[in-house]
Every structure is written in C-alpha cells, then in structure tokens.
Design a protein that fits this description.
Blueprint lengths: L1 H24 L5 E2 L5 E8 L11 H21 L5 H24 L2 E7 L9 H20 L3 H4 L1
Antiparallel strand pairs: 1-2, 2-3
Helix pairs in contact: 1-3, 2-3, 3-4
Length: about 150
C-alpha cells in the first residue's frame, strides 16, 4: 500500500508545486515559451475539461466527495489485485485531490499546459494523473479483469 500512497502524494505535490510556480511566474492569460509542441499558459478553469459545467462548484465538490470515498475504498479492497487497477486508482485519487485543493481554496482550477499542434483544452498535472489513472483502469477492464482467476 505504500507505493499507492506515494503515487497519490507525488501527484498532489507536483501538481500543487507547478500551480504555485505558474501563478508566481506567468500572468493570467499569458503564455510562456514558444514552440510547436507545448507551452505554458496560465488560466483559471471554473469547470471541468473544455470548461463544461462552468461555475458549478457545488457539483464538483459533491462529485469529489463521492470519488474520494469510493476510490480509496476500491483501492484498499483490491490492493492485492492487478497493478493496472491499483496504480490506476492511485493516480485517479491523486489527480482528484490536486484539483479539489484548487476548487476549495480558489473556487477554480489552475491550468497551464497548452498543446500547440492540436486544439485541446489547457490542463494541469492533476489532469495528467486522472488520464493515466483512467487509462490504467481501461487496460485492466478490457484485458485483465475476469482473466486473473483463470491464470492461476
């Protein structure tokens, strides 16, 4: 269980440190770096991805409470199962906490990574953790779940 706690902790710490650095070093709405791949642009996101449900803080707080009840329970319950499942849940928990800290403290989420070669929402490290976690869960659900017992 220590490795899962470390994944959560590192995700939250890296997320919050980069957000602090972003607010300190990049004016709101400005972009730092100019390359064809990725830049840092400081924005305030009051919604979810693509700013959906913008201004619905109560909804995000409620969903976060549910997620931070269900996912740690699932992690503990399945701690001896596939690493795809447990590591995925750990990244989801870390990403959820990282964005939740912003929502409670600021009423919005600080985003900064802007992909330049495609039109994509600006995101942060917590979002990366959530995507890694969901990706791991998809791999687990598609290729591993139900097959674990047959391999023993």
């Amino acid at each position: 269980m220590i490795i899962y706690g470390l994944i959560v902790l590192v995700t939250v710490i890296l997320d919050q440190l980069l957000k602090i650095w972003t607010v300190t070093n990049i004016p709101l709405g400005e972009t730092l770096g100019h390359n064809p791949f990725m830049t840092l642009t400081f924005i305030k996101n009051e919604g979810a991805a693509w700013s959906i449900l913008e201004g619905q803080l109560w909804f995000f707080v409620m969903i976060t409470f549910v997620a931070l009840t269900v996912f740690p329970y699932l992690l503990y319950k399945n701690r001896d199962k596939s690493k795809w499942l447990t590591i995925g849940l750990s990244f989801i928990i870390g990403g959820t906490i990282g964005n939740f800290i912003d929502r409670v403290r600021l009423n919005y989420v600080i985003d900064m990574f802007q992909v330049e070669f495609i039109s994509f929402p600006i995101f942060n490290i917590a979002d990366i953790g959530l995507c890694i976690g969901v990706g791991c869960l998809f791999i687990y659900l598609l290729f591993i779940e139900g097959k674990e017992n047959r391999l023993k």
